[in-house]
UniProtKB/TrEMBL annotation:
<keyword id="KW-0012">Acyltransferase</keyword>
<feature type="domain" description="Phospholipid/glycerol acyltransferase">
    <location>
        <begin position="305"/>
        <end position="432"/>
    </location>
</feature>
<feature type="short sequence motif" description="HXXXXD motif">
    <location>
        <begin position="310"/>
        <end position="315"/>
    </location>
</feature>
<dbReference type="Pfam" id="PF01553">
    <property type="entry name" value="Acyltransferase"/>
</dbReference>
<dbReference type="InterPro" id="IPR028354">
    <property type="entry name" value="GPAT_PlsB"/>
</dbReference>
<comment type="pathway">
    <text>Lipid metabolism.</text>
</comment>
<keyword id="KW-0443">Lipid metabolism</keyword>
<keyword id="KW-0808">Transferase</keyword>
<keyword id="KW-1208">Phospholipid metabolism</keyword>
<dbReference type="GO" id="GO:0006631">
    <property type="term" value="P:fatty acid metabolic process"/>
</dbReference>
<keyword id="KW-0472">Membrane</keyword>
<dbReference type="InterPro" id="IPR041728">
    <property type="entry name" value="GPAT/DHAPAT_LPLAT"/>
</dbReference>
<dbReference type="InterPro" id="IPR002123">
    <property type="entry name" value="Plipid/glycerol_acylTrfase"/>
</dbReference>
<dbReference type="GO" id="GO:0016024">
    <property type="term" value="P:CDP-diacylglycerol biosynthetic process"/>
</dbReference>
<comment type="similarity">
    <text>Belongs to the GPAT/DAPAT family.</text>
</comment>
<dbReference type="GO" id="GO:0004366">
    <property type="term" value="F:glycerol-3-phosphate O-acyltransferase activity"/>
</dbReference>
<dbReference type="GO" id="GO:0005886">
    <property type="term" value="C:plasma membrane"/>
</dbReference>
Amino acid sequence: MELNVLDQLRKSLIRLVRKPLAFWANSRIMPEKLQNLELDTDKPVCYVMRDDSISNQLLLEDFCLSNNLPSPLARVSDQAGTDGVPPMEACFCLGQRGKGTQPGVPDDLIKLQGWLRDHPEQDIQLVPVSVLWGRNPGHEKSIIKLILSDRVEMGWGRRLLVMLLHMRQCFMFIGKPVSLRSQLTSEDDRKIAHKLSRVFRVHFHRQRVSVLGPAVLHRPALVASVVRSDAVEQAIQYEITNKKISREKATANARKYVEEVAASYENWVVKLFDHFLRWLWNRLYSGVKVGNVDHLREKSQGHELVYVPTHRSHMDYLLLSYVLFYQGLATPYIAAGINLNIWPVGGLLRRGGAFFIRRSFRGNQLYTTVFKEYVHTMLKGGYAMEYFIEGGRSRTGRLLPPKTGMLAMTVQSYLRNSRKPIMMVPVYFGYERVVEGRTYIKELSGAAKQPESVKQLLKASKALKTSWGEVQVNFGDPIPLTDYLEQQKPGWRNEDYGNDPRPEWLSKATDGLAGEIMERINAAAGINGVALSSLALLATDRNAMSEHDLLAQLGLYQRFLKQVGYSEMQVNCDDSETELLGALIAQKGVGRFRHPQGDLIYLDSQAAVLMTYYRNNILHMFAVPALVAACFSHGKPMSRQQLLATSKSLYPFLKAELFISWSDAQLKQKLLQIADFLVTEKLLIEQADGLLIAPEQETVNYYRLMVLAQALAPTLERFYLVLLLLNRSAEGSGCKQLEDICQKSAQRLSVLIDLRSPEFFDKALFRQMFRTLREQGYLQETGGQIVASHGLDELHQLLAQMVSPAAARSIRQVAAVGSEPAKQLAA
């Protein structure tokens, strides 16, 4: 009886400090959505913690009481369905209080197993809970920093110090429940408990590493390690022999390169960035939305993560690290262009985890080797990494063709050492307004890119006076590198690759991986009001619509995304059509013409050019529906089989240009779903004979169908122009000459038809189209000259039916002029 009174008194005193402690810690709970825990509320719960910390248990209790979950400090027998359970708290720990995680098995776990054997109808859910204070991984050679970081072995005095130092930087991770019943076998209960304890210890270790990352390498030791590596030693010897310099000079050069490249991570800088970025995002953006992070967290357990985001803005560097920090994931070491290594930004970025890369490695073997060895050292050490797979920022809003240099280094490093499994994580950024938007338009119009400088930095501070809307950070479906390589080269682990692995299959595998990453970036695209409204307005003749029609079109797009959808990883927007339109109207250059018969929404000439950027962010999601709509633009009926055949002929070009992820089997399924959706929306009519046809041209539904189709009109017009030029002048011409002629002709056409879409004559798009024409067998290049197949005529005739008569006339006029230089070259 006396023990019960003392026990109650202890709990009362403990709970007295629960609320102040919870306020002090300001814990972030992962996962954020309670339903993601997958708890069965009809079964009893026991929590499993790493060590017996009263403070951590109190934080857990505060969370449980706030969410109607069983208290960890209450007895298990207080929960329903636990008659006869031995007296014990609903939380047991794998270590002793004040002594860290000492090896052993909680006796309570063994008792619960015995109770379950006596009650075969019952089950207990074991829920692992990790509580981490601060984000300091510690330095391998720093005793003080190891003491002040939240390490596994920690007494009460040191824990109190850590709590004081890391106020309001506490993370609580609640794992998915494990059925204790499912773990029972014919083995002895103590042996089963040992295995379970080991599984939970591994889980807690992986959780800690995924949040904090490995201990930071001491910089002098890192530099020395890279310089002394076999690969760099060979490069030094090459310098000595070929450049006739001394060993001291060559070694000093290697050391200088490592110092230029290497990050110098300091936790105090990360904390400084934390405070600064919270202030900055509140000034710049009305919100930062994060998508698919729970999916990433679940799939990435036990993996080293390499983030490969799209590159929209200089803000991307900071934004991803900020999001990862607040989602309880280790912040990555970031490959940054050497142009950002300017005072004072460069030093801060370096201490925040940036390592710097030159624009070109050409002609400098020592630098190339040093950089590769640094990347290998970091990956081998298990450090998260980030680099932009496009190389530079996209000025058009479309994904740029991938640059595979860093990706190849990652794969080569993994071939050398694959003990720590790597997972590639695609990341999509979506801005309602990109800070550099006006600059991008100037550069696309021919202005020279301004180099980064202190002066440019001061000019950028003007952005703080403007609201830039919302920004989305969405994580794509990760790619386990081990699984990918096994698909490309079964048995790849059995080969000896040496220090500079370059197997013959590497280039093809790297290119394939790059394409897969790009498609998964686009698969995680997010929707916002600016992008969706731009998609509709830019599809009209004068970039203007009645408010009523625009709202109806936005509703159509929203229903398509929810009923048919682009991918399982897409992030939809729950805003109403009015809220979506409101995001657009807040942009500069968007006007409202008030009229008694209904207001009109329009874009001025500058805004129309800028809005192509945001439209292009999501164009891939609507490209195939727009293609289907375009098939009916001339009012002729089509069967579903004809629709499939027409779409399949053009799909390879859209897939390559827009990084669409659908396979041929998925395409067929999606095309049929799209056709059914358009019939349901009454944008297509199914006749008695089963043929599909567009509504009458004077109807509202025909107008909406054509607005959908016009989203793809510039792309189809560019395709038609290329095919027309090929038909007129392909024979005897070379690919590069024809690409140049097509690009110049497209530029001329954009002026004639007043097309304000800067990417329309982007050289990269023509290179990609010619590559696809070769891959699909429409073109062959023999002896530097183009030979066209008969299928090219069929493709040309197909496109001629999908381009408007007015656009077709202008294209034929431009092609007539453009084909003359090609004929002269051929002659």
